[in-house]
Amino acid sequence: MNDLIKYAPDLLAGFLKNVQLSLVCAVFSMILGTVLVSMRVSPTPVLRAAGTGYVNIVRNTPLTLVLAFSALGLSDTLGVSFSDEPSTNSFWLVVLGLSLYTATFVCEALRAGINTVPMGQAEAARAIGLTFFQSLRMIILPQAFRAVIAPLGSVMIAMIKNTTVAIAAGYLAESAFVMKDTFDDTGVSIPIFVGIVVAFMLFTLPIGFFTGWLANRLAVAR
Amino acid sequence: MTENGDSTPLVVLEGVNKHFGSLHVLRDINLTISRGEVLVVIGPSGGGKSTLCRAINRLETIDGGTILFDGKPLPEEGKALAGLRSEVGMVFQSFNLFAHKTILENVTLGPTRVRGVPKAQAEQRGMELLERVGIGAQASKYPAQLSGGQQQRVAIARALAMDPKMILFDEPTSALDPEMVQEVLDVMIGLARDGMTMMVVTHEMGFARRAANRVVFMAEGQIVEENTPDEFFTNARTDRAKDFLSKILTH
Question: Where are the transmembrane segments (chain A) (predicted)?
Fold first, then answer.
């Protein structure tokens, strides 16, 4: 318990990095996931194939490999750099890798949502002269989003926990790394371990409750 | 509402064919619809009536033949096709109102997003149309809060909001409870009187007799008979039509 109190400021600083990563990745993965699902349901075969190919490859690659690729492949080999400051650079490499990865799950959740929207909605949209992308944006996706708020919440919770493997992209500031670093000094400390678990639960549990509540509130009556 | 004095037909179908797999659903359809005409399409289920109706705004593609709308072949895709559809209203059997939008939004979406009409103007016109179909008081509700008959009248208002050159009705009363059929038919009869060009797939003989200029009887993907409503219902020329009528008229 003394270890937890002694290292609490470091651990908290680390945990705030998890929160930061989560918020940025949530925004990017939602946007990219929406783009991907639009490709996957589009009438253009090339877009459909590209979307399907991307999702199948990235979704089935272990996250640590995606992150390692963004650090070793993109950054070290191809010279992609977000900042001269190594910790800032690796922060954005994690954001890149984790967003690219999480977007595939957002895409598939949304695609399940699109399947809940009756065919007639799209037909009515086309019949009044909306183009495919207009009907997707104004009619199909808004209903699809509402149908999968709870599953999207699960995707976001998984993404938040995934920020703890950021070390795979060389990012050394988040809480799981700080914990391991601390254990090197103190030996394994159960209170520290439990403290971090509790911090994550305080973050993710409300998301689960909130998305469940929102899903009921925004459900489309048919 | 129609361009009076323009005697060219609004819709011309020539040799139209369509297959669903091995099923030949439209066989060599030749049909002309004049401006201001109300055409009723009648016939047994699976006879191709709905497919014919949906082919005119290309919700169904065709395998052969041509369809001219207002003198031009139907565009195949993209913006041109969307443009055509904005000129052809459609009313579906299952209403298909946008479930996440209010009644008024259902009616103003097309004008604002397709035609670029300013929101206030679209809402004013939308309210007028909703009043006209008797739903003005429900404008801020959602579709699921309305009865089937009310939803279908909103769907008609939604089609009218685009100022279409014609409206296609695909079995507009088939999904309604019996007591709601008449309120929808009354709106349609009003439209017919105002000179709207209409193609109506229906079994409602009362409507056909009161409002239609012509009845087309379809079976097995073919147009079997074209006739005036009175002639058709009292004295059909073909055996296939007589047989069909004997089955539905006994009720």
Answer: 20-42, 63-83, 89-110, 147-172, 192-215
A123, A130, A142 ranked by CB distance to B114: nearest: A130
Looking at the domain assignment, is residue A194 inside a domain? no
Round the average pLDDT of chain B to a whole number and report it: 93
Q: What percent of chain A has pLDDT over 70?
A: 100
pLDDT at B5 exceeding the cut of 70: no
The domain tally of chain B equals: 1
Helix (H, G, I), strand (E, B) or coil at B29: strand
Q: How far apart are CA A111 and CA A103, in angstroms?
A: 12
The string of pLDDT tens digits covering residues A138-197 is 999 999 999 999 999 999 999 999 999 999 888 988 999 999 999 998 888 899 999 999
Q: How far apart are CA B183 and CA A19, in angstroms?
A: 58
Cβ contact A129–B79 (<8 Å): no
- Strand ranges across the sheet with B214-219: B88-91, B166-170, B197-201, B38-42, B214-219, B222-227
ipTM score = 0.91
For residue B105, is it within any domain? no
In single-letter form, the type of residue at position B15 comes to G
Provide the residue range defining the domain that includes B26. Answer: 11-98+166-249
- Domain of A167, CATH number, reads 1.10.3720.10
Structure tokens at B99: 């479930």
Whether A148 maps to a domain, the answer reads: yes
Q: What is the mean pLDDT of residues B87-93?
A: 96
Cβ pair B113:A134 closer than 8 A: yes
Contact B15, B64 (CB under 8 A): yes
Within the 140-169 window of chain A, which residues sit less than 8 Å (CB to CB) from chain B?
142-143, 146
Q: Is the dihedral of CA A175, A178, A184, A190 positive or negative?
A: negative
Interface check for B145 against chain A (CB to CB < 8 A): the answer is yes
- Dmax (CA) for chain B in angstroms is 55
Task: Identify whether B147 is part of a domain.
Answer: no
Residues of B in contact with A125 (CB under 8 A): 98
Q: For strands B214-219 and B222-227, give the pairing.
A: antiparallel
According to DSSP, the residues that pair with B17 across neighbouring strands are: B64
CB contact under 8 A, A120 and B92: yes
Residue A89 lies in a domain: yes
Residues of chain B with C-beta less than 8 angstroms from the C-beta of A222: 99, 144
Structure tokens of B192?
């017919």
Nearest to A163 by CA among A95, A76, A71: A95
